[in-house]
Amino acid sequence: MATIDATNLAMDPNGLYREEVFTDQKLGTIRQLAPVTSAGAADAARPVLYIGQAHIVTPGGALPISFQIDATSLAEAIEKFAAAAKVAIDETVQELQEMRRQAASQIVVPEPGAASQIIGPGGVPPGGSKLR
């Protein structure tokens, strides 16, 4: 999907699609995007797109995964769904692992004894407590 410019929210009349959703109610869905003109007529100059959608379960809950299926018919998209889903899920898992690795590398562990220089022994700031 393209980046949205908040200052220009006009729809592109040359990039319209009619959407149909197909599901087996078990594994996922296939969205068929048929190109149309701004009048709603079929636009034969552009290809029909097939977008697969599935979910993977993570400790944080279900994560939706969307992926394009290289197909020229619904039957072909159904046939290629599993392979395209596997690639998309593998890529997502790799991205999640990389994000986890980056987050873990951002944890700063103070050097031994560094906390006592800031707080002081026994949790009292250097110079003692001056409560009034």
Describe this structure in words.
The structure is a single chain. With 132 residues, the protein is α+β, with helices and mostly antiparallel strands. The model has no long low-confidence stretch (mean pLDDT 85). The protein has one domain (17-109). It has a 4-stranded antiparallel sheet with strand order 1-2-3-4. The chain is built from 2 helices and 4 strands.
Brief digest:
By secondary structure, the protein is of the alpha+beta class.
Fraction of residues in β-strands: 25-35%
Average pLDDT value? 85
Low-confidence stretches: none
> How many beta-strand runs?
4
For the biggest sheet, the summary is: 4 strands, antiparallel
